[in-house]
Amino acid sequence: MAIREFVSMNHKATERDYVARVTERDKAEVADLALQWDYDYWDGSRQTGFGGYSYDGRWRKVADKMSETYGLKAGMRVLDVGSGKGFLLHDLAESVPGLEVHGLEISKYGIEHTMESVKDKVVYGHAKELPFPDDHFDLVISINTLHNLYNYELFAAFREIERVSKGQSYICVEAYRNEREKMNLLYWQLTCRAFHTPEEWAWIYEQTGYSGDHEYIYFE
After folding, report:
1. Is 80 helix (H, G, I), strand (E, B) or coil?
2. Residue 133 burial (C-beta neighbours within 10 Å; 0-12, 13-18, 19+)
3. pTM of whole model > 0.85?
4. Could you give the angle at the alpha carbon of 59 between the alpha carbons of 193 and 159, nearest 5°?
5. What is the CATH code of the structural domain delimited by 8-217?
6. β-pair partners for 139
7. Domain coordinates of the chain in residue numbers?
8. What is the tens place of the pLDDT at every residue in 114-165?
9. Residue closest to 48 by CA, chosen among 25, 71, 16, 64
10. Greatest CA separation found in the chain?
């Protein structure tokens, strides 16, 4: 198990107005909209989610770094748990021609608007019950998805990732190291259910037998 820095380079490049997130509009109202995982979350206002989530190539450097780190080659299988609109899947497939990419997504809107290049590789489902055989993927990844689960779902999801992976996996979740980062996370998040410090996440990995790599993003 190792700490990786794949997503942080994108995360740190984004500016956020934490206070505006809770003052411009009723936070409970916008969170309810975001949790529908529909238009408002993906392509509506920035207050309710991404504010328009379109492909801009920013995930290609993540894909290239992952490909190098995990030695991805043609014929290998990769699963993205929480694949969104398939941007990373698309970039992984371009980074390693012949790579077999698969995605799982709980948002029907996200699947409907997944990039055409990988749309037929994405299935609807929940991370707590992956519809794939044991030891099926050379790499399983999940980015900014698992912290959206309640603990009883979260524990099941980690065990499922272990089950379908041949040994390599990577997850990225939100975390906080101090009270400022905790407040910023609470202000900014719309869908988070698991609010944990790195130490708490490490305990969860131990309890569930998760042996893969991980990364934390912080709201500094």
Report:
1. strand
2. exposed
3. yes
4. 40
5. 3.40.50.150
6. 78
7. 8-217
8. 999 999 999 999 999 999 999 999 999 999 999 999 999 999 999 999 999 9
9. 25
10. 50
